[in-house]
Amino acid sequence: MEPIHIVIPVFNRKEHTKACLESLRAQTNTNYKVTIVDDGSTDGTGEMLQSDYKEVEVLRADGSLFWTAGVNLGLRHAMKAGASLLMTMNNDVIADEHLIENMFRWHQKYPAAMLGALEMDVHTRKPIFGGERLNWLLNRIDHVLDILPEEEQHGLHPVTHLPGRGLLIPKAIFERIGLLDQDRLPHYLADYDFTHSARRAGFQLFVNYDARLYTYPDESGEREIRREKSLKNYYKHLFDIKGGGNLRDFTRFTLKNCPTPYVPFHLANGYVRRIFGYIIK
């Protein structure tokens, strides 16, 4: 079977990258290739990759890409080299040893579908994200983990969108809808936008509960902004390219994906949540 080509954008956080790559080395199925897009790291990441991970292909950039353009650079490179099955992954995750094995197993049953991974807290080893289902009419997101009995937390479960960490994507999806929208969504929401677009194009989206990733829930850029609340961080939350409440990106995402009759309500509700949510939480 064609290998999975894994694309990982990185900028510093060398130890996270090391832990991620070590977890991939420990996979029960090693039919994969890794391409790292090193976007100008200054903490020794490049030197570590060159000396310790010679099996990893490294594309170097100048620090101007952010997440979406970094992923697209790696995807274009992999597909030019003949990749037909791709996976986007962040460097701040640790792959369960059966991740690749169980992605292949379900891909064989649903070869045209996009598959996400079940996310586990790296510290508690408990599931923290198992997919979401967005109802545009009610402006509500249902978290699959909250409604799924524990005994059913295995196999595939349908969702409306997926995050880009540990996301298995057949090449046919890119051929139908193109790459991620790096111009309008350079960092956050590009993965959700891409997967919404794929679903509208007729592709199925599932979270694969048998394929697990361990994540660091308290170490995202948005968590750091919220951890030390200040006017400066409030501004970053709403307007910075890495701000989780970025109003520009939320507006672009909504106008592109929300059914037209629901746009005003969705925008108003989203603005309130972002403007006041930082203060309340």
UniProtKB/TrEMBL annotation:
One of its GO terms (molecular function) is glycosyltransferase activity. Residues 6-114 form the Glycosyltransferase 2-like domain. It comes from the Bacteria. SUPFAM superfamilies: Nucleotide-diphospho-sugar transferases. The keyword Glycosyltransferase applies. Keywords: Glycosyltransferase, Transferase. This is Glycosyltransferase family 2 protein. Belongs to the glycosyltransferase 2 family. The keyword Signal does not apply.
